[in-house]
Structure formats: C-alpha cells, structure tokens
Design brief:
This protein is mainly alpha-helical and about 100 residues long. Helices cover about 40% and strands about 10% of the residues. β1, α3 and β2 form a beta-alpha-beta unit. The two termini are about 25 Å apart.
C-alpha cells in the first residue's frame, strides 16, 4: 500500500551484522539500542527462532514485542489477511505522530 511505502522511506535499516546475529541466535548479539521506536513481530509457531529467543532479542533491542500465536516464521509471506501489514502501519502511524516527516 502507498501508506506503507511512505513510512518505509523514513526507516533506518538495522545493521546487517545485528540481523545476522539475531537470525543465528548468537549469544553476543547485542546491537546498540536505537533512539527510534522499534517493533519486533514474532510468530508463535516459528520453528527457526522460538518466541523465547524473540522476547530476549526484543529486550536487547529495546523493542516492543508483539507475538502472533498462530503465525509461522515467515510472517510477511503467509499473512493473507493483511494482519501483519496492518500492525506495521499502526505502529508507524504512532511513531510518525511523534516524529513528523522531515524532522
């Protein structure tokens, strides 16, 4: 959707190393806390990254965690209802109200 693309332009990418460490579950995965709000969406049926590991990673990142109990690992790919996109848009709209574009 257009709204998602507008917010996407304003996002700062996480360092590739942090993403790799998180995916591999390395114990030294301690990416720096950012100043921008973060949201971590996790699937309760994720067999690659269990919910307990997702919770630890959210704490390490200073991120808000939202667990989707019936969701698998590939939230984006298997979300035919649009629930994940809706959650991201809601999170971004709240963040956007605190940080107007261009500031």
């Amino acid at each position: 959707p257009t709204a998602l693309r507008d917010y996407w332009r304003r996002l700062c990418p996480e360092p590739a190393r942090a993403a790799l460490e998180m995916g591999l579950g390395l114990p030294r995965a301690h990416p720096p806390r950012g100043r921008a709000p973060r949201l971590l969406l996790a699937g309760g049926r994720d067999v690659l990254i269990p919910p307990a590991r997702q919770a630890r990673q959210a704490r390490a990142l200073g991120a808000r965690l939202h667990l989707l109990p019936q969701a698998p690992h590939h939230l984006w790919l298997e979300d035919s209802s649009g629930q994940v996109a809706g959650m991201v848009l809601k999170f971004l709209s709240v963040c956007g109200s605190d940080n107007p574009a261009g500031s």
